[in-house]
Amino acid sequence: MSRAADDLTEVLAVPGRAVGFDDARWTAMLCAALAERLAGTLAERLAGVALPDTVATWCDNALVQAAQERRSALWEAEMARRALAALGVPVVLLKGTAYAAGGLSAGLGRSIGDLDILVPRDALDAVEAALLAAGWEWVKPDPYDDAYYRRWMHELPPLIHTSRDRMIDVHHTILPLTARPTPDAALMLADSIVLPDGLRMLCAHDRIVHAAAHLFADGDLAGGLRNLWDIHCLIGESGTDGLAARAAMHGLEPAVARAGRLAHALYGTVVPEGWQRLTVVDRLFRRRMLAVDGWGRDVRRGTRLAFYVRSHWLRMPPAMLARHLWTKWRR
Amino acid sequence: MRHAIGLKIGPVAFRVGSDWAAPIAALQSLYRDYPAPVGVPDYTVRLEAERPWRRWVRPSVAVRGDYILPEALPLDLAHGVLAAEIGMNLQLALGERRWLLLHASSVERDGRALIMSGESGSGKSTLAAVLATRGWRLMGDEFALIDLATGAARAFPRATSLKNAAIDEMLRHAPEARFGAELTGTPKGRLRHLRPDATAIARMDEPAMPALILFPQYGGAEAAEGMGSAEAFVRLTQASTNYGPLGRAGYDTLTRLVTTVPTVAVDYPDTATAVALVEQLWDAL
């Protein structure tokens, strides 16, 4: 088994550990970082460390890429702000774009793809209409998917901008309606923080709650190392005082505790004593998160499949899951 | 991976891994005269079985790596060296931010570079390969790398990829020993690689300032027409794979290029005419 993924987490946590790596070990770690979309983050972390020339070159390239992703992400947020300004509804930036706009350490070097925003559920129709009028269009105009999104998901079907080719996910809460926990989206909106341009981001605790929910209560853990690094940075900036209580309000205390335990185990995040030991199940999550080798390949197929199945199980009760898979299978 | 090779082409170092021995052996042979890369590669390319069993059953090569195009189709194992070439081009096209990348061939004479941009089929690769047999130094047949700080062109002299009639044309100019194995039935038809000559390899780290930009077009009657900098700018943004992502730096670099270097659109019926026309334009600079 390659140690590239272990090296990656250890060097992100303590960059000086990379000093003395030979070429092969550097190569494997950098390749794993790219596969996990952590190249820019790693390059930022390695600033100030004495690097071999070719590694320094790789880092410079990664930093230019990250700067460009940041610029496009902030521009896309501005485009959405302009499209929605007249509605007078709160528009909360989520995930990468929020970290970049809010000047948070999780945003340093981070790769940012789609724009994710949270708006009040009762404003959803108006937001959708305003975005369509401003040049966004549906990505997958499929009746079943569309109906599924609108009935059961926590977001509109994805929209893409016609000329800029960028996706926007419009959320009205942070987990699918079919998931067992039911976060309090109204509370998240009410406590969100306004940014200088009028857009908003979640309050510090809710940012962690959302990141943990996204990582552990939804999805198959693809990109897990990156999302866990976000959590490491978010906890590092705002601490854990009152975090468990806030998570409990959203029904997400277990996800946040697991995030804390794994962030501590992989990145050395400072967490309360109760979160400093991994459970047996946590170890499976760690195994899944580290399932990348020094060639950037997905490894541990069985573990990956298990988490893929779990992601569906989390989202839907069994009868509904069976119906969903049947509908998808027939096409 | 089971089989791997390091390649350094101009300023770019690759690591190519493969599930099979044959593509790596073919690369080894094509790039046998190149210096071995040192340090950490800029890019990783993986040639891997699309599904685990496809390593043996109807082997088909998926082109993957640091950067991936999800829609890229797998290739026949017999075309593994083409898969590697596509993989290397893709890494540069999608990942590179040190230079402005122009989809163009380039050659150098007296320390100055001639850049030829055009679609596949315009003849830019053949033209560069033929000029390289007439005292020019081959800098590359796929990408010209324009330095963001100085505006100089960097060489990327990978093996020239010749298709169909261009193979027969080049066999008249270069010895058989410089050619790789012939691949038939590729998505681009018949294909054969031509190893760059010793000069191109020995001097691949030498940059050259661009002195002339051509847009060659094979097939028409002989014609040469100067192109305004605005049109050249627009055409080169289309020929660049990273103009957008580079932002301001890309704009500044391309603006400087088209406002300081003359640009000519060239139509030609055959290679001999094109060569004469190019050298005439060059001598008139």
TrEMBL record, chain A:
InterPro entries: NTP_transf_5. This is Nucleotidyltransferase family protein. It comes from Sphingomonas prati.
From TrEMBL, chain B:
PROSITE patterns: SIGMA54_INTERACT_1. Keywords: Kinase, Transferase. GO terms for molecular function: kinase activity. InterPro entries: HprK-rel_A, P-loop_NTPase, Sigma_54_int_dom_ATP-bd_1. This is HprK-related kinase A. The lineage of its organism: Bacteria, Pseudomonadati, Pseudomonadota, Alphaproteobacteria, Sphingomonadales.
